[in-house]
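Hey,
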Amino acid sequence: MSGQQIEDNGDFINAEIENVWNNCEASRRCTENTRSDPSSSVSTGDHFAVKSINKLLISDPFDLSCIAAEPKLTLLASSGPHTVNLHAVYEDSASLHLVLDLCSGPDLLGLLCDRAPLSEAEAASILASIMQALACCHVRGLAHRDLKPENILFDNNSAGRPKLSDFGSAGLFSIDKKMSGLVGTAHYVAPEVVRGEEYGERVDVWSAGVLLYVMLSGVYPFGGEDVSEVFGAVLRGNLRFPTGIFGGVSKEAKDLMRKMVCRDPVRRLSAEAVLRHPWIKSGGGVKEL
């Protein structure tokens, strides 16, 4: 699932993160650009993941800005059971190390590759966790901006708790200040982002709606041979439910997708409104709206 990212000039939160490393002992060290390895706390025996980023192998200005901001944004997003929380940060001359919740299960992409489409009940459960994470982030003025299956991790096995991860492309917003920049992954990016407009947090809801479509069908709603074709399909925004693929999917699930994958961000549901939708509240088992 290819992505295209262009520099965002938005400001990042000024948050203080203490370099705390002496209570963790990494079992392996990073030899690649970015890698997550298990570690354990020397004092408590708790297990964590260590995401190590080799700064010497990165030269792109946008990537460097994302690396610099990721600890601060991840700390802001660390809000409980539905996000991969940040516990400590250590930086040396060569690498940046983030000590994070350990998610030993697969990511959502792996789950979908194994057995998509998912049942409505399973998709509703996963989406509810994602939307709870997004709702918490949005209240704090933080948008993820790169929601996709690779960034949804399971804390145990595929039946474990889904957690939202990777805030390296996240952006800050407020009532008075929107975000800008083409940031995200082509199949999941909202049309206002593609158009080069300023935008708010509901770009995440569009991406989550596309993700729901993929979970229930195993295919993208907006495809193409290259990024330009995908963006063209996104801008047209013709959300279709082919009978051969969606014949067994409930009208309530389709109703939610239409309200999430809505070209007009003003009419698009908020993260909290998604959580109040009957399909989500019933766990994907409603019979009538």
